[in-house]
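Example record for the data management plan.
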Amino acid sequence: MPAEPLIKRAVAFIDGQNLYHSARESFGHTYPNFYGNPLPNIYRSKDWELTRVRYCTGVPDSWND
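Corresponding structural encoding:
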């Protein structure tokens, strides 16, 4: 079994639609307005190196709330 690396690297994947709808339900936002980035603090607390962040979203053909 290989040894555990001294520096652990991580990539974060963010589902944009899920993030938007969760913020809308929780805080009443009607327009995407995400401020700040908590990811560096989360990974720093684990002593991981955040190497990349991938934000993915889709746009539906018709929008039905």
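Summary line stored alongside the record: The radius of gyration is 16 Å.
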